[in-house]
Design a protein that fits this description.
M4 family metallopeptidase; Peptidase_M4; Peptidase_M4_domain; six-stranded mixed sheet; 33% strand; ten-stranded mixed sheet; 51 strands; alpha+beta; 20% helix
Length: 952
């Protein structure tokens, strides 16, 4: 391996000092809070205890290199808590017996690893987990090290003021808004009449109170939202944390893990466990009669392999159920099920009705099982089980011999499903398409998904932001390690680091691969700051930075040693909120604990350095924008601009306070003004015309639309509701316009003028009509609408003249399926429109005169340069849209970026070349735009006065 480092020199360059890089987005400030500072000192194999302090806590993030006596009798958990109690001066944990609940004890030979969940006044702390490592020999225990997150600064009151019922309603509403809030479709009108079966397509389940560790802590209701997207029919599973004092969703992310990812729209995976009534659970409970027989089958690559089977006498068939592997432990099976014809929505988080184990009249399975991917799935599941058992002594995914179930051949809307996932109890593999084989046809995919199960039963890394990227990195590392070794590939083979490289039917492995562990990505050059709405905060986008470092370690120190180091780090050191720095610390500490040579330890450290994973790597990146307000620390809110002013929601440095509305000048002069009252409510989604600011306030009593003059004065309540949510506030002169959404997904635009006691609804409040996505200019409101037209529904755009009360219907070039955000200026109306739903989400940017004539596209839906736009804002001279191109070849290129057009469509350019996600644009006049930018790892409010160009 002497040439490995030089061979990689072109892929990742070692850094000295601190590289500039993006930290985790502040949409999950809890993960920023959890990132530890790195302490010098200690660290030698025989030196004094190494102590790495935690950030935002007095409890160390890691203590290593100690041998301190612990209680020899009693449980390992009691001994662990006794050690922490006896060393209060070091750990600052006042009452370990009260505030730390044992969740797992892992025993491997003489070693014992105890995981303890933090409680705050009896309430679980999200990600608060502390690990104590011990050795137990000859009846005596010694503690060898500790690590994790214990938040000592928590002071939150744990008495909820918001009911579970309201929290569930707010969680479902927030999920609906994320799914469809930026578009209006035919179903948005039909649902309000109960005309479609998807009217209640999303349901929420309260999971109990949880303290989110932001600053002194935020008490939340944890709600799991599941069901199907009412607009697309895609399955949904969302973890939402709703402030239990004010009812605002402060944190939400998808609870779904897939092999594919990034922002390419591949379906997500649900984590909910299958019920005990499932056929798999019933069969496992019945128990085997014998370990079964050896059969065979042919994999996709033509290789004949041995398969573990049993004879099902009721079916008179040999079925893919292998009891032999766990015959001497739990006697649970490894089983492969025929799920062909089952929709992905039927199998995520549940057990589908009517499926059977793959069967054959003889022990030799034929072509049908091969083409379905069953042979590959069954063989590969056994290989992954064997790897963890033989190399790491781990009995199945949970370490206690759990049953392993694989479902093969799943479809999506009756068509191909090109993805795979683990849902907490089983693996699910799509059947592939004309380009891709079934997803089970590559061992690294199976290893990846099964490793998600191992991660879930060890560190349980939160699947969002850096911890989610670390989760993906570990799944990629072990999946590829298993596949490369099984194939007998050399570690320096150029294709050794490819994930999914064997899935293509005709393309080369490199053309086919989903990711490459040898892509040379680093924090300073490649880390992407994104919101949780994009790839759960970059879990796939950023994963190969860390997995690349692990893969380099495997090249340099050898396969077996590297695998043992990484597994030990996962099983004994990492905890749920660990990011890249904590992951590095865990791997280095595990290497020391295994007694590696100084040469190998240096190789481990060099690999992380080469990928920029070093202490304090989270530094600001260079940007081409002017900063208006740094670190907004907010989520689910938008920015506004007008009349030379900007307005945005902002929280405190750690994101623990309810959001407040601020306003400032778009030229950056003067100090920003606090506009909203500090009353414990969440003040979000503000808009301004340079004279007045209007916004939405969420509290336990309901949702209000408020306004206040920029010059000062009382806050006015314009509208209040206890049963709907409010979006898209716009203000001009004495008029404030907004749209509301109900729990069924119905949408209605309303406006309030000076002196009005109640809003006027542009659609007359008719249940069979939906209106949304308003814009306001010159006393006219433009909005998207869906209304009955015979037996069908018409989707379009209208303009209401407030002075005359007359409406103008915008002409159409085709038959829209959905309409997106509208914009209006003194001469025209602009909107996003989708007429071809199956064209990968591309939309047209359309323009018409104020009277609805002269309809034309300034950016067409089809052809070169077509956009997947989701947001739009217009000034008198320019139209700016947010566009994402998930199929782009580069990671950064796939993220939402701002494009600006001349109002007549004569020119087009990128607003900013910043790396990272750009969202919520607000036209500030002329070509100037204000927006929320995640490039630096924070949700920063930034601006440019003119476009940056092509960014080539």
């Amino acid at each position: 391996m002497t040439d490995a480092r030089s061979r990689r020199a072109g892929r990742a360059t070692s850094k000295s000092g601190i590289p500039g890089a993006a930290a985790l987005i502040s949409a999950a400030a809890l993960l920023v809070t959890a990132a530890p500072a790195h302490a010098a000192g200690g660290g030698g194999n025989d030196g004094p205890a190494e102590v790495i302090p935690g950030k935002g806590t007095s409890t160390p993030a890691l203590v290593d290199g100690i041998r301190e006596a612990a209680a020899s009798s009693g449980s390992a958990a009691d001994a662990a808590r006794g050690h922490l109690a006896g060393k209060r001066g070091r750990y600052r944990i006042a009452e370990p017996a009260r505030d730390l609940k044992p969740v797992q004890t892992l025993t491997s030979g003489a070693s014992e690893t105890v995981r303890l969940q933090q409680k705050h006044q009896g309430v679980d702390v999200l990600g608060g987990q502390y690990v104590v490592r011990m050795e137990h020999k000859n009846g005596k225990r010694v503690v060898t090290g500790t690590s994790g997150k214990y938040f000592t600064g928590l002071k939150a009151d744990t008495r909820a003021e918001v009911s579970e019922k309201l929290a569930v309603e707010r969680a479902v509403a927030a999920t609906l808004h994320d799914l469809a809030g930026k578009r209006l479709a035919k179903g948005d009108a039909a649902r309000t009449k109960g005309a479609t079966p998807s009217a209640r397509s999303l349901t929420g389940t309260a999971r109990g109170l949880v303290v989110v560790p932001k600053g002194p802590g935020v008490l939340t209701h944890h709600v799991t939202v599941r069901g199907t997207d009412p607009a697309t029919g895609h399955p949904v599973l969302r973890e939402v944390y709703v402030d239990a004092k004010a009812g605002y969703p402060v944190l939400q992310y998808s609870g779904i893990k897939t092999f594919g990812g990034g922002t390419d729209g591949l379906r997500e995976r649900a984590r909910a466990a299958a019920t005990d009534t499932s056929k798999a659970a019933a069969r496992a409970a019945a128990g085997p009669i014998s370990p079964g027989v050896a059969g065979s089958g042919v994999k996709y690559d033509g290789t004949t392999v041995e398969l573990g089977l049993v004879k099902d006498t009721a079916r008179n068939e040999y079925v893919m159920t292998d009891y032999a592997r766990m015959w001497d432990s739990s006697k649970n099976p490894v089983t492969t099920w025929d799920a062909r014809g089952k929709e992905v929505s039927e199998v995520e988080g549940r057990w589908p009705d009517g499926i059977k184990e793959f069967g054959s009249p003889t022990p030799s399975f034929g072509k049908d099982a091969t083409e379905a991917g069953a042979v590959d799935a069954h063989w590969a599941a056994g290989k992954v089980y064997d790897y963890y058992k033989k190399v790491h002594g781990r009995d199945s995914l949970d370490g206690r011999g759990m049953a392993i179930n694989s479902l093969v051949g799943v479809t999506e809307f009756g068509g191909p499903y090109v993805n795979a996932f683990w849902d907490g109890t089983k693996m699910v593999y799509g059947g592939g398409d004309e380009d891709y084989k079934t997803l089970s046809a590559d061992l690294d995919v199976v290893g990846h998904e099964m490793t998600h199960g191992v991660v879930e039963h060890t560190a349980n890394l939160v699947y969002a932001g850096q911890s989610g990227a670390l989760n993906e990195a570990l799944a990629d590392y072990f999946g590829n390690a298993i596949a490369v070794d099984a194939a007998g590939m050399a570690m320096d083979d150029p294709d050794a680091g490819l994930l999914g490289g064997n899935l293509c039917r005709s393309k080369t492995p490199r053309q086919c691969a989903f990711r490459d562990l040898n892509d040379g990505r680093t924090t300073s050059k490649n880390f992407l700051g994104v919101g949780f709405g994009t790839d759960n905060g970059g879990v796939h986008l950023n994963s190969t930075i860390f997995s690349g470092a692990l893969w380099d370690i495997r090249e340099d120190v050898g396969r077996t040693l590297a695998d043992k180091i990484v597994y030990k780090a996962l099983a004994e050191y990492m905890t749920p909120l660990d990011g890249f720095t904590e992951g590095r610390d865990a791997v280095i500490a595990a290497a020391k604990a295994l007694g590696v040579s100084a040469k190998d330890l240096n190789a481990v450290q060099r690999s992380f350095n080469a990928h920029g994973v070093v202490p304090n790597w989270e530094q600001a990146l260079g940007v081409d924008t002017d900063l208006l307000s740094a670190k907004l620390n907010t989520a689910g809110t938008e920015a506004g601009a007008g009349g030379g002013w900007w307005t945005a929601s902002r929280s405190n440095d750690d994101g623990s306070e309810a959001y407040s509305v601020w306003a400032g000048r778009v030229d950056g002069s003067g100090a920003p003004k606090l506009i909203s009252p500090n009353d414990g409510r969440y003040h979000v989604s503000p808009a301004t015309d340079g004279k007045t600011v209007a916004w939405v306030a969420y509290g336990k009593a309901g949702t209000d639309v408020l306004s206040r003059p920029l010059a000062g004065g009382p806050v006015k309540k314009l509208y209040g509701t206890d049963s709907a949510t409010v979006y898209n506030v716009r203000v001009e002169g004495g008029t404030v316009v907004f749209d509301t959404g109900d729990i069924l997904g119905g949408r209605h635009v309303g406006y309030v003028r000076t002196g009005d006691k109640q809003p006027t609804w542009v659609d007359g409040g008719r249940a069979e009509v939906a209106t949304a996505l308003p814009s306001l200019n010159g006393g006219r409101i433009a909005y998207a609408t869906v209304s009955p037209e015979g037996d069908a529904y018409r989707v379009g755009t209208e303009v209401l003249d407030l002075a005359t009360g007359k409406k103008a219907v915008m002409g159409q070039l085709g038959k829209p399926e959905t309409v997106g955000q509208t914009g209006i200026n003194a001469t025209g109306v602009f909107w996003l429109v989708d007429e071809t739903p199956d064209d990968k989400g591309r939309v047209a940017v359309r323009r018409a005169g104020l009277d609805g004539t002269g309809v034309a596209d300034i950016s067409p839906e089809k052809g070169a340069g077509a956009l997947r736009a989701s947001e739009l804002t217009a000034s008198e001279s320019a139209v700016t849209v947010t566009d994402a191109q998930p199929e782009a070849t580069g990671y950064n290129e796939s993220l939402p970026k701002l494009w600006q057009f001349a109002a007549d469509g004569s020119s087009r350019a990128r607003v900013s070349c910043n790396r990272g996600e750009q969202s919520s644009p607000a036209a500030a006049g002329g070509k100037q735009v204000v927006w929320i930018d995640a490039t630096t790892g924070s949700t920063d409010l930034v601006t440019r006065t003119r476009p940056a160009g092509t960014c080539g």
